[in-house]
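Slide 14.
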Amino acid sequence: MDKNNQHPFLSRGCHCAPQPHTRQLDVYRHSCNKLDAFDWLKDIKPSGACRLTEIVEVRFKNGRKEFFSATPDLDLKTGDIVAVEASPGHDIGIVTLTGEVVKLQMKSKKADQKEEEIKKVYRKAKVSDIEKWVTVVKQEETTMHRSREIAGSLKLQMKISDVEYQGDQTKATFYYTADERVDFRELIRVLADAFGVRIEMRQIGMRQEASRLGGIGSCGRELCCATWLTRFKSVSTNSARTQQLSLNPQKLAGQCGKLKCCINYENVCYQNILKDFPDTGKELVTKKGAAVYQKMDVLKRLLGYEYRESPGKIIMLPVERVKAILAMNEENKKPDELEDVEALHGSSPQPLFNGDNDLEDSLTRFDKPKKSKRSKRRKRKPKGNKAAT
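Slide 15: predicted structure.
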């Protein structure tokens, strides 16, 4: 199977393109596809009184997953290609979770657990289902480029970023982004005539577009939203201020043009550390003069102050030292200066290198020293005087 045929199915979690007349054992593999789900209860057998759930999780293109009810006689397992209920017709997807862990997944995603409202799994995909599914999946990229040309000819201010065909080739969903409201009624009529299917337009945000298209972030790794991130939380500039980040839009913005989702990752850690920090709005009064706050290093628990009379020289102080000075100021006492002289000179730190070991641990100890030009000139043999004629 060549790479071009594999590519359309990678977004559906397939390790390789399915073959209609072969067993589909190696089509779906764990930890080799986007937004994979791990069943951590598969080795735990339910008790006799516990009835196996008949609800399974089915995956479609990109991160779209839905829950379906299946009859016990189907005996579905992870990786099975199934035909499920859709509106209208049926769709083709891959089973990603079965068993008791599906209930926990539904509770985590706050899905409706009423059986009468859950769609059904019709059957395991037949040869004809897989053949039609493979055909329509390969048409999605050409359909997307053609739809962009049609939207451009109609002068619509929108960007079609992805197309998803239904498994029975009766409906196509077009995902688009737009800054303003778009009247795409004429576009739907043109697309329906061009592709001969039912058209559904679905607007998505910039973050959802980035998760569908993928890419490489400024960290050098694949985008989190395209690999494992399933829930988008709002990111504000307050999180950047908490972490002492410069409010530069070019550095804080991701591929989607919004604030990076990774700004929220360490925000709670910084908030917990800052709870122990003193109020930076208060001045530190010493006999040498008053000092004002300038900057901080949260992880090292250091605060930077400078004297009003000598600006430009920032002194980094531990949090405990700042608290001690503030406590003295509340008692109308003033320390001699910001630094604790006794703490600085009480214990001298051990040097990293001793005198004898400096040469042994030097990185340039094997380099040959360059000889000066003067020594070369001295070693040259003097030229003899020519005999006078």
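Speaker note: The chain is about 30% helix and 20% strand.
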